[in-house]
Amino acid sequence: MKYVDEYRDAAAVQSLLAEIRASATRPWTMMEICGGQTHAIMRYGLDEMLGGAVELVHGPGCPVCVTPLAMIDQALAIAARPGVIFTSYGDMLRVPGSGRDLFTVRAQGGDVRVAYSPLEAVKLAQANPQRQVVFFAIGFETTAPANAMAVVQAKELGLDNFSLLVSHVCVPPAIEAILSSPTNRVQAFLAAGHVCAVMGYWEYPPLASKYHVPMVVTGFEPVDLLRGILAAVKQLEIGRAEAENAYPRAVTFEGNQPAQAVLRRVFEPCDRQWRGIGLIPRSGWALTPEFAAFDASVRFGVADVATAESPLCVAGQVLQGWKKPPDCPAFGTLCTPSSPLGATMVSSEGACAAYYRYRRFAHTPA
Ligand code: SF4
């Protein structure tokens, strides 16, 4: 299959691994931002094949994982209301809130439905004018433009029974929060190719320069990932710290300008809580005043919901690269995909789920 097979080619993978091992004069620590990249690394065993040249730590780029518990509890409260059709991507249905999850709300009579796009929710609102339809708008810059378009469309259609529960986050402020932490151990970043396909990578040169850390835009197949790692190693070895694009078949410096324009029309930056990490200034999107009437948390008055995390869960430390999932005492025992304590074990992009799925019960030392 074109654009897949050549990026999974075993000979190309071995050649890149050999070049990385030959280029690294010391072990380097780098973070892949995206949970999809974490799963690809685990699936193909790339971390183990690097032979200690690079330690990969796993970043906060899993939207389900970083959606705050308070936001999930708001979703549960809205979904349980009579007359509401609550729609969400499938992953969110199993994420535990303080006491239950969306599946439980559905089992108890709530009208909770899986949607594959926010436009499905707009159509539902058109078809059910007597019901309130809410879409759970989570995710990074990859999903935010589609949600923005849904709100634009709902406004154009004059729908007053459609709203978004917004928990969007953006990548660059999270990178800055990790780099400015006194406990940071990340020496280079593999930036998420799909986010950069939308946003470009014009936001990264100032960060690379300010923190003197290479940032390499990287794709998702084994050859893509190893090309990104090799580019980062080469920069580290000669003391360079620049933003670089190792995924040019999908990413340009400027990104998708129309998508960025609709994003800026519908959303504006806001401070946002990240689950397990805490508040990161200007790391989220909130609806602009023009579209504030479509804010579900205001419409349903659920902004102040009290929450309680599992005291055992160390997902926040995993998402910042301080710990690996097997370092958590609950990993694989009290916390499994069928009985998750934290979102990183539930999500299809979560680091704990990746380690569990690929049977990594001890982490790979550098
Ligand atoms: S294994 Fe479970 S409890 Fe431990 S950090 Fe991961 S999600 Fe949290």
Structural topology:
Elements (H helix, E strand, L loop, with lengths): L9 H14 L4 E7 H10 L1 H4 L4 E8 L1 H4 L2 H11 L4 E5 L13 H6 L3 E4 L3 H10 L4 E8 L4 H14 L4 E8 L1 H9 L8 E5 H7 L4 H8 L3 E4 L3 H16 L5 E3 L11 H10 E8 L3 E10 L8 H4 L15 H5 L23 H4 L4 H7 L9
Parallel strand pairs: 1-2, 1-7, 3-4, 3-5, 5-6, 7-8, 8-9
Antiparallel strand pairs: 6-11, 10-11
The site of iron/sulfur cluster (SF4) has 15 residues, from helix 15 and helix 16.
Key traits:
366 residues, 17 helices, binds iron/sulfur cluster
Give the tally of β-strands. 11
Major beta sheet summary: 6 strands, mixed
Q: Name the beta content range.
A: 15-25%
End-to-end separation = 34 Å
> Which descriptor suits the 3D outline?
globular
Q: Please, how many helices? A: 17
Taking strands numbered 1, 2, ... along the chain, how are they ordered across the largest sheet?
Answer: 4-3-5-6-11-10
Whole-number mean pLDDT: 93
Bound molecules: iron/sulfur cluster
Cα radius of gyration in angstroms: 21 Å
Low-confidence stretches: none
Helix-strand pattern, N to C? HEHHEHHEHEHEHEHEHHEHEHEEHHHH
Helix content: 25-40%
Return the structural class.
alpha/beta
